[in-house]
Amino acid sequence: MYFSPLSVIFTSSFVVSTLAATYQLSDNHVGTDFLSTFVHEAIPDPTHGRVNYVDQATALAQNLTFASGNTLIMRADSKTTLSASGPGRNSVRIHSNKKYTTHVSVFDIRHMPQGCGTWPAAWEVGDDWPNQGEVDIA
């Protein structure tokens, strides 16, 4: 998945009217800001998919994550020939350092791959996943 430019805007509900909530901008993450405000998770896939999530240093070294100016690129390794019994492709999974409860997220995504089992993906989860559910953004 190429996020170019990728910016994520988080807003929190501050004023509530009788018809709808009013939101104000609380955080705006663009390009290189992702490298300090999000964590690369080098964890086994919690859904048991055939993917190998790598840490930030590995993602940067293998050009799976690239940030510059207003651009963030996240992608899965497309060059390695995998064995049938191997762990799957190296890819990127990030989460924000900050926790949000009531919020609106706006993603400005120039290109996102589609299809079943496509990584990386964008989603939001609660601290107690899967019990608190998730929002898949695709």
Automatic annotation (TrEMBL):
Residues 1-20 form the signal peptide. It comes from the Eukaryota. It comes from Cerrena zonata. GO terms for molecular function: hydrolase activity, hydrolyzing O-glycosyl compounds. InterPro entries: Beta-glucanase-like, ConA-like_dom_sf, Glycosyl_Hydrlase_16. The keyword Lipid metabolism does not apply. The keyword RNA-binding does not apply. One of its GO terms (biological process) is glucan catabolic process. This is GH16 domain-containing protein. Pfam families: GH16_XgeA. Keywords: Signal. Residues 16-138 form the GH16 domain.
